[in-house]
Design a protein that fits this description.
Rossmann fold, alpha/beta, about 15% strand, five-stranded parallel β-sheet
Length: about 200
Amino acid sequence: MSGAIIFVVVVSVTFVSLVRRLRKDVPKRDTVLSLKKRKKVHDAFVSYYSDGPDQNFARQYLHFALEMEAQPSFRLVFHERDFRADTLILTNIMNAIRNSNVAIIIMSQEYVNADWCREEFQECVEESKKDPMYKLFVILMQPLETLQNCTEYMEQYFRNKTFLDRNDPQLTGKLVEYLRELQVPEEEITQEHSV
């Protein structure tokens, strides 16, 4: 009887030891997700209405704060600069979203009213549902309660999320902090992608 007990103990210890060794070789969920982000070429896709204050905010403030001033700088996608002329607009949008870690949405009444902006917003929300690492940062150019004619996608998103305010003195710091967590050094990006 004692021989049987010793055999069970030895088998149990061996099994536990084997399981522990195997667990060390299996990447943790966080590791798998962090490897996924390495495939992204851009840190952020900037979605904004192409005129007036929205464009000025995106092209002057965000471009300067995140691409020029931040060290190391971030790789942003601006449709006017980075979309390919020989590619359909929707294809450019999808490539920009899929090849970026986050979307920065410049939300204003003009954005809400523009068909392409609505499309970009919907695609960004869909990407965030498919990819848990993909995040949306919505920067309000005006108070949320003043936005009219929002799509159902927008309204649903607004009910469940928090936003950044363009007048927040810590806006740049908040964006830099989060983008820095997701940033992959350019030399580590092995594949060449277009927007």
